[in-house]
Specification:
The chain has two helices and three strands, in the order E-H-E-H-E. It has 121 residues and is an alpha/beta fold. It has a domain of 47 residues. The protein has a three-stranded parallel sheet with strand order 1-2-3, covered by helices on one side. Strand 2, helix 2 and strand 3 form a beta-alpha-beta unit. The protein is elongated.
Length: 121
C-alpha cells in the first residue's frame, strides 16, 4: 500500500479565532469580506490566507492517503465506466436504496473494486 504525503500548509482560520468574544466562531475558513479587514489586506501577524501556492501537485491532488481516488456511484452505468481502472475506490451514493446499494456493491466486488461504504447484509 502506498502512503501519499501531501504538501503541508498552515491552518487557515477566521481572524481573532479563539478570542474571548469570539467563542461562537467555528474553527473553519471563510474569506474575509470587510473593506478594512487586516487579514484581507494581508497584514503580518494575522495569519495566512489560502492561495494557489498551497495547491498539491497533480499526481497527488484529490487522492486519499492510500493512493486511491474516491468516486461516488449513483447507478450501474457510472460503475461500468470505471471498471478495469485500478486507481478508483467506489463510494455508494447516500440516496440509493439498500437493495440498489447491495446490487452495486456485489457488482463492484465481482470486478475486484474496493467499496468504502459497504452495506451490511
Amino acid at each position: 500500500m502506498i502512503m501519499l504525503k501531501k504538501r503541508e500548509h498552515p491552518r487557515f482560520v477566521v481572524p481573532n479565532y479563539g478570542a474571548k468574544n469570539r467563542k461562537r466562531v467555528k474553527d473553519r475558513w471563510r474569506s474575509q469580506r470587510g473593506e478594512d479587514n487586516k487579514k484581507k489586506l494581508k497584514k503580518s501577524g494575522y495569519g495566512k490566507m489560502p492561495s494557489i501556492g498551497y495547491k498539491n501537485p497533480d499526481e497527488v491532488r484529490f487522492k486519499e492517503k492510500n493512493g486511491m481516488l474516491k468516486i461516488v456511484i449513483h447507478n450501474e452505468n457510472e460503475l461500468n465506466q470505471i471498471i478495469g481502472k485500478k486507481d478508483y475506490e467506489v463510494v455508494l451514493a447516500h440516496e440509493l436504496s439498500k437493495r440498489k446499494k447491495m446490487e452495486l456493491q456485489r457488482l463492484a466486488e465481482m470486478h475486484g473494486m474496493k467499496v468504502s461504504n459497504k452495506v451490511k447484509v
